[in-house]
Amino acid sequence: MYSLYINNSNSPNKTVNSTGNSVTCSFNPAIQLNPDKKYEMRLLQANIVYCQPNITSANNQFSYTYNSTVYTHTFPTGLYQLSDISNQIARWCTTDTGRYALFSLTGLDQTSQVIVFFQMSGSSIDCTIPNCVMSIIGFPASSGVITAPSDGYVTSPTNAVLNSLQEYLVSCNVINGVYQNSQLSNILGCVPINVLPSQTVQYQPQHPPHCSIFVSRIDSLTITILNQNGEPTDFSNDGLNASPENWNLTITVSEFNPINLS
Hints:
The protein has 262 residues and is mainly beta. It folds into two domains: 2-52 and 165-255, Jelly Rolls (Sandwich); 61-155, no CATH class. 6% of the residues lie in helices and 43% in strands. Strands 1, 4, 13, 17, 18 and 20 form a six-stranded antiparallel beta sheet that branches. The longest helix has 16 residues, at 82-97.
């Protein structure tokens, strides 16, 4: 049996991509498997920092008007809670107008909607601008320009979707025969998100899946962390750090034993 400990830090014989979610390890000597036998791979353990940004260049713009003056700002890429978005907007309002918190955001847990409270008359928020941040808190472009009603409160017409990441999928280039929904895939394991943002997901399954290896010689191995839709994740911190957020895995390669499938 071979035990492999793989992480996304830079080291010899290893290539880490720019977003830190994919690692290719080159083995010297290669892992040589008996071609007359069947082998399997199992994901025994994973430690992955939950840091996937929910505000990126695709939804980072905020534009508002106060006393006929338009102000537009860009959110830094990051993983935001509703309170973080509200506080950032309040800081911009203070700098722009001297008025703290022209707008405050409150979540409705029972409906997943968001209430915008307008603290001052003569202010509005433009939801129609390209890449608008309001879209993830339930105000799509069709919301138009929202202004203060008589009571000051506007409820989002749709649900807020602040954190669409539900689980990490770990894929490996030398396995197959694993069904993801109705499609064959090379998914080695599924790591559910069960911690708060910026904390580390610690995954150690009681019964790791048995995944068939389809090669008899492993010269290199590529491990990639994806989201639940099979899309690439991003651990790069938008270039704020010299290295990406860390993750590590413990993997075994062993001869297939149909007697012991636990």
